[in-house]
Amino acid sequence: RYAEQCRLALRNRQWTELARLSQSWSEADPENAEAWLHRAEAAQQRRDFVAADEFLAKVRPTGEFGVRALETRIGLQFGPLNQPLAAVESCLHLLECDANSKVAHQRLIFFYAFTLQRRKLIDEARLAIARESEPREAYGYLFLADALLLSNADSQNVRWLESDPSSELFAVARAVHIAETLEGQIPRDDPVLLANVKKDIERRDRTLQELLQKYPHNLELLAFHLRQAVERGEVARVQELLLQSPAEAEFDNRFWRFRGWLLENDNDLTEAETAYRQALKLHPLDWSTRHLLAALMRRKGELADAERLDQVVLHANQIRREFVQQPTMRAIPPSLLKELAEYAGECDDSLIAETLRAQLSRFSGTTGSRK
Fold this sequence. Notes:
Serine Threonine Protein Phosphatase 5, Tetratricopeptide repeat, mainly alpha, 73% helix
């Protein structure tokens, strides 16, 4: 009886009636998932998002109703409730319920990209791709993982900071996004414009240094300062920053790249090559490490390998330029996916290469399947 009445109220958009009926239903049968879903829908329509989330939490995370409840909670938590960390937990719960949930994978990839959790971004994108549950933008985020410049990342992290003003994650993500965006805007060959942005550069450097003092083991802050130190050839600074890196840096391709650079600077070419190859093992699409490895191979006299690596890096640079021209990550055309598939093949990244080839086969109407 309650089910039919609630469905009728839902169809007729009678939210007050739906709230009354679903409340009676949930009180009479607290284990009934559909009753709580109807109650949450009525609360949402009346813009009582806190209550809606509480009602959805009553649904056990199993089966069709459990999936629906978690998907709705994720939307509320990332949306009007502005509870991003709770939303991430809901995504992880949803993946326990449905390992192939496209909603959960897409939301996690988005969150890890915007908060610059690059290791998690790479792992999550590859997991979603392996499960055939990836959003289209997963390939762009994966390819650009070491060089993310997202136009609305600042405003998004400001919003998330409102939910937790003391958050290290959001504060660092915002600062690094701003810094890397400014880095790309510095007019290298125009002294007048450079003088105009000098104050912004000084403010950026001061902010990042203060954050590093506050969070001395933060991976993103360390990586930013390490990249700058490498570019400036500051060997002692690279040594210092690597020494204060946390244990999780062992699983981050960038830190193996920095370690390789330091070893190469000490003329330990064998260990430097080992470090570079470990970086590529962690992130096969890493063109920055390939660039350094090419130079190392040339130093070792292995010119054929150096030339091959140089060509792969040139291909990566071409793809990067094309990505910059795309309006959004979700608007990647098949032609760019084809280039990325070829690049992944050149990097011996079989997962990405084969997945993209299968997708391109479907786009063209020919037979294709994932390995």
